Amino acid sequence: MSLDLATPATATPRARPRASADAPSAPRRWLGRNRAPLVALAVFLGLFLLVDALSPGPLAYFDVSFQISGATPLALAAMGQTLVVLSGGFDLSAGAVISLVNAVLARSMDPAAAEASVLLWTLAGIGIGMMVGAVNGFFVAVVRLQPIVVTLSTMFIVQGATLLVMDQPGGFIAPALGSFYMGDAVEGLVPMALVLLGLAALFWSWLRKTGFGVALYAIGSDPASAMATGIRVTLVRFATYVLAGGFYGLSGVFVSAQTGSGDPLVGNSLLLSMFAAVVIGGTRLGGGKGGLVGTIFGALVLMVVVNILLVLNVSAYFATIAEGGVLLAAVLIGSLSRDSVLSDQLRRLRGSLTARRAGTHVSQRPAGDRRLAFVTGAAMPVRSAAPSFLQRHGRELRFALPAYVCLVLVLIATQVVLGNTLANWGFWNALLVLSTFLVILALGQGAVILTGGLDLSVPWTIGLSGILLAGLVQGSDAALLYALPVVFAVAALIGLLNGLGVVALGLSPIVVTLAANGILQGLALLYSGGTPAGFASPALRWLMTGKIAGITPVLVLLALFVVGGTLLLGRTAFGRRVYAIGNSMEAARLAGVRTGRVVIGVYVLSALCAALVGILLTGFSGQASLGMGDDYLLPSIAIVVVGGALITGGRGHFLGMVGGALLLTALQTLLAGTTLPYAFRAILFGGVVLAAVIALREKRN
Amino acid sequence: MRMTARIGLAALCALAGAVTPAMAQEKQKVFLSMSYIGNDWQAEAANMVKAMAASKTLRDKIDLEVQVAGPNAQRQIQQINAMVQAGAKAIVVYPISPTALNQVVKSACAKGVKIVAYDSVITEPCAYNVTIDQAEAGRRTAEWLVEKLGGKGNIVLVTGVPGTSVDSGRTNAAKEVFAKHPGIKIVGEAVGMWSQAVARTELSKLLATRNWNDIDGLWMQVGCYTANAMQLEAGRTAEQLKPCAGEGSNGGRIQMLKAGTEVEGADGAYKPLGAPRISYASPPYSGAYALKLAAELLDGKDVPHNVTLPLPIVTNETVKLCETGSWDEMKAGCNVFKPSIIPNPGWFASIFSEKTPEVGLNAALVGQPEN
Question: Name one Pfam family in it (chain A) (predicted).
Answer without folding.
Answer: BPD_transp_2
